[in-house]
Amino acid sequence: xxxxxxxxxxxxxxxxxxxxxxxxxxxxxxxxxxxxxxxxxxxxxxxxxxxxxxxxxxxxxxxxxxxxxxxxxxxxxxxxxxxxxxxxxxxxxxxxxxxxxxxxxxxxxxxxxxxxxxxxxxxxxxxxxxxxxxxxxxxxxxxxxxxxxxxxxxxxxxxxxxxxxxxxxxxxxxxxxxxxxxxxxxxxxxxxxxxxxxxxxxxxxxxxxxxxxxxxxxxxxxxxxxxxxxxxxxxxxxxxxxxxxxxxxxxxxxxxxxxxxxxxxxxxxxxxxxxxxxxxxxxxxxxxxx
Length: 290
Known about the structure:
metal ion binding, five-stranded antiparallel sheet, three-stranded antiparallel sheet, Saf4/Yju2, 290 residues, zinc, nucleus, alpha+beta
């Protein structure tokens, strides 16, 4: 029996789907579907009760000329389990339910009870307000407070929408919200990191790399002006990391050493001047011969 459960069917090499004739059926043809009774009902012919959830083989069709805000309404045909009388019911998108149409009456309709309860509450409220003026005043205050809360919420929504519309295209909203809630310490840290990154880029962009090229005519070597480039080092994992100064040209290393000496000299001079300003005299201790 396994050969009957395959999903792929054989198509011959000369198969042409355009040669298959199209079936022409009626525009609103009925379909046979399997469904369960959406509500408990009673047959109007024999009085048989049909409980909710009983399964039927029903015919389904689209109701012509009826819809609810563009939503189609479907009609279902079933037969009574006792007398085989035809029973029809339709979908009700307004109440998200079903309505009995012909052949049976529904035992319980929830929306009718809701309407009755609402009407009873409204009549009781009117009667209480007629007998008690203070209660009427309290009800009016509650209604006015509810209206004010609704207006405030609506105003907040409008202000938020207007603020979102003013944000330019291409700007991430989450980034702006993060900047608004950013603490001063985070802002200072981010600014310091940006300055450090800028300083590093400036230092490495000023490292000269000397290069020479031969003239096309072959008469001699022509010196090329020094170009500013960033030194990039590629090494394998596990290698010993070389010194950065060993990778620089001779002129650059001399310039760096001269700069370091000048900085040390300035620091020593500043220390000496500070000691003189404080009235401290430095005396060299003589060596004791033993």
